[in-house]
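Deadline looming. Please check this record:
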Amino acid sequence: MQLETEQNVPQEYLKPPSQEQGLLFVLSSPSGTGKDSVIHALKKGGMDFYVVASVTTRAPRPGESEGNPYHFVSQKQFMQMVENDELIEYANVYGNWYGQPRQVIRENLRAKRDVLLKIDVQGAATIQDKVPDAIFIFLVPGSLEELAQRLTGRRTETEPELMRRLAEAREELAQQHWYDYVIVNRQSHLQEAVELLRAIMLAEHARTRPRNINI
């Protein structure tokens, strides 16, 4: 039996699958699980992808500025964006509106740059309906006890707010089954979570049938 070698295999079979545009990754997690820390460490490690800054009607907090981490707009401006179909997803959270701008996502994808959306479970479900070929990743804590310690350590929530966030976390964790991937971000093991996210993003570009991202 003659084995096929590089000399007699058609050249098109020796090339990786063609990716005509970037991929859309959706990252969700309960509050306090460490999304921003994982993303920052991954970008610092050399991965090139665009992180979408959400649009919101809430006021900036100390240390925040336009575009970091949100685009701050008035309610009138936000509703105009909704009317013009400029947001791929939006929702009202505790009296403030949040949305994901469509055009900047489309531009980066067409430039063959991967895009990462960090949104909650409700928003991710909306994206799944609209863009089923997006890649959905859920970041979970090592345990609810560990998450409670992280939230307490932030000193940004009152006791009632802490209890509410933990209750929300339980509800969100129950939705992880429909995500494509689940990554555990254990306390003091950040790099493990970072490397898993890196592996997922690289593996998605090696698919024999590239995903069709249509925004």
